[in-house]
Write a structure and sequence with these properties.
This protein has 23 helices and 16 strands. Helix 1 crosses helix 14, helix 7 packs parallel to helix 8 and helix 14 crosses helix 16. The chain is globular, with a radius of gyration of 24 Å. The two termini are 44 Å apart. Belongs to the IlvD/Edd family. One of its GO terms (cellular component) is cytosol. This is Phosphogluconate dehydratase. Its EC number is 4.2.1.12.
Length: 610
């Protein structure tokens, strides 16, 4: 097996050292729950009667007899999310396949699944990040019935997989397998959609043209086809070994998709107690989290995972820092150009070689740790391509060559030598920037600041022509403690239009951007956030800001004494801006962690009783 890159070995070792006590506490927790038989054997007769009352007779017999393993299904199905609409019929498929391998399956519970595409730029987006923690909580409630010997997780999109992962890890004495649904077929090319969005922002086309373009882009059941957070989630599940290999990007409704779904049932049953018992909490370790970061950098994935990876890792006792992301990015080549990093979508990527090719290249280059464990064994066993042989699921070697070098490249000839995400630091705070789709001549932007406290104010200034110049737009009070850290992707058409006019434009914010963003240089997740006294609260219109993605600096050209002496702006929430459920999340805003550690409600590193 290829030797792991020394820098990745170093990062893995320092995560393990940093997390020694918290990981030990986590392992003590899950090992204390290690089963010695099927879970429901611990329940009283009355408990078991309730749990089986609604089942089909054939399942009830086995549940009451406690002779077969029982698999809990956590589903994020709703038919408003195109990505999750295919899940409507999954439970019956899962139950049917479970019976074939002497097991039962029950839908343990459903979790909320909001669509960031629906709420983008709308008030509901203020609940988006916190929905991750709600999903984790709802999954925990579902699994707390303690009826289950393993779990299948049906989720794909932005906060849903991270929320499911957090819960799965907290029930880490069980085996877990994640079951995707696949991307919708390709529609209107993404660059054309982006062009029409910018023309609408400039007033060159009307709403009818915009709606037509959007509808032709998002047109059928399945995941959106650009490489945003949802598809980055699926990449992570592949490189962490939590999928049946190659499951991420097969379209819904195909025979291969159903075969992969049924294989997930068979595999989780095989991993239960009395068989090849493999608890997820021991399977996923520091090697897995470094692999996740490598996958993110190599594919140019979503910046949202600078939030989600630390939050998920914390649930397994590991502490991930921005320096870890920085060091992984420095040695990981960018192998993919998928929109917004290039014109191709994930269907084109899949056809050109997909995840099996990327994983093969990274493993052979010593950039993925093949000894990390997955549901099919060592991760080195996951770099395979699924296909149907005489109607049955089979696996073959990953493609030796890329089918399209404009979409995916070998590790020996990457698009760029470093990954798609970099850390920024300086007097304005620490944050991250996605560089995989930023043009080289835009990697350094220096311009006067224009400060906004809301994204609506920026849109209004753009509409009035006030931003037709070189500008660094500072949008503050957008962190978890202020308004829940909504995505600011709705600003992309305006900022993109300014850049296309030839102006040098950048964004600096304590908020976040969509996984589909990246064309505009954007310093995001800047912390400490302004609402908690961060430096962005002292920035004024006209201050010259320098964003240097090449050196990783975020500077302001104001004398330090003068800058520190300024009275910081105070966050004043709009009392009239409550409603739509936002007032129900006050406790989340008050207790959210720093963006650098995931912006989570949970603090798994607090000592017991602390």
């Amino acid at each position: 097996m290829t030797t792991l890159h020394p820098k990745l070995k170093e990062v893995t070792e320092r995560i393990e050292a940093r997390s020694k006590e918290t990981r030990a506490a986590y392992l003590e927790l899950i090992r204390g729950r290690k089963p010695d038989g099927f879970a429901r054997q611990k329940l009283a007769d009355g408990n078991l009667a309730h749990a089986s009352a609604g089942c089909a007779v054939m399942d009830k017999t086995q549940l009451l007899g406690a002779s077969w393993p029982n698999i809990g299904v956590i589903t994020a199905y709703n038919d408003m999310l195109s990505a999750h609409a295919p899940y409507e019929h999954y439970p019956e498929i899962l139950r049917d396949e479970a019976r074939k391998v002497n097991a039962t399956a029950q839908v343990a519970g459903g979790v909320p699944a909001m669509c960031d595409g629906v709420t983008q730029g709308q008030q509901g987006m203020e609940l988006s990040l916190f929905s991750r923690d709600v999903i984790a909580l709802a999954s925990g409630v579902s699994l707390s019935h303690d009826m289950f010997d393993g779990a299948l997780h049906l989720g794909i999109c932005d906060k849903i997989v991270p929320g499911l992962m957090i819960a799965a890890l907290r029930f880490g004495w069980l085996p877990h397998v994640f079951v995707p649904g696949g991307p919708m077929p390709s529609g209107l090319p993404n660059p054309e959609k982006q062009r029409i969005r910018q023309e609408y922002a400039l007033g060159k086309v009307g709403r009818d043209a915009l709606l037509k373009a959007e509808s032709e882009s998002y047109h059928s059941p399945g995941t959106c086809t650009f490489y945003g957070t949802a598809n980055s989630n699926q990449m992570l599940m592949e490189v962490m070994g939590l999928h049946i290999p190659g499951a991420a990007f097969e379209n819904p409704g195909t025979p291969l998709r159903e075969a992969l779904t049924r294989a997930a049932v068979r595999r989780v049953v095989e991993l239960t107690v009395k068989r090849d018992y493999t608890p997820m909490g021991e399977m996923i370790d520091a090697r897995s989290w470094v692999n996740a970061m490598v996958g993110l950098m190599a594919t140019g994935g979503s910046t949202n995972h600078a939030l989600h990876i630390p939050a998920m890792a914390a649930a397994s006792g590991y502490q991930i820092t921005l320096e870890d992301f920085e060091d992984v990015s420095a040695v990981t080549p960018l192998l993919c150009r998928i929109y917004p990093n290039g014109p191709a979508d994930v269907n084109h990527f899949q056809a050109a070689g997909g995840m099996s090719f990327v994983m093969k290249e990274l493993l052979e280059a010593g950039l993925l740790n093949g000894e990390a464990k997955g549901v099919m064994g060592p991760l080195s066993e996951h770099a395979k391509e699924p296909w149907l042989k005489d109607g049955e699921l089979a696996f073959r070697k990953a493609p030796e060559k890329s089918g399209d070098l404009d979409i995916v490249r070998p590790a020996s000839d990457p698009f760029q030598p470093e990954g798609g995400l970099r850390m920024l630091d300086g007097p304005l705070g620490r944050g991250v920037i996605k560089v995989s789709s930023v043009k080289p001549d835009r990697m350094v932007i220096e311009a006067p600041a224009r400060v906004f406290d809301t994204q609506e104010a920026l849109k209004e200034a753009f509409k009035n022509g006030e931003l037709d110049r070189d500008v660094v737009a500072v949008v503050r009070f957008q962190g978890p403690a202020a308004n829940g850290m909504p995505e600011l992707h709705a600003l992309s058409p305006a900022l993109g239009a300014l850049q296309d006019k030839g102006f040098r434009v950048a964004l600096v914010t304590d908020g976040r951007m969509s996984g589909a963003s990246g064309k505009i240089p954007a310093a995001i997740h800047v912390g400490p956030e302004a609402a908690r006294g961060g430096a962005l609260a002292r920035v004024q219109d006209g201050d010259v800001i320098r964003l240097d993605a090449e050196t990783g600096r975020l500077d302001i050209q104001v004398p330090e004494d003068e800058f520190n002496a300024r009275e910081p702006a105070v966050y004043r929430p709009n009392i009239l801006g409550q409603g739509l459920g936002r007032e129900m999340f006050a406790a989340f805003r008050d207790n959210a962690g720093r963006p650098e550690s995931g912006g989570s409600l949970f603090d798994f590193f607090m000592p017991a009783g602390g």
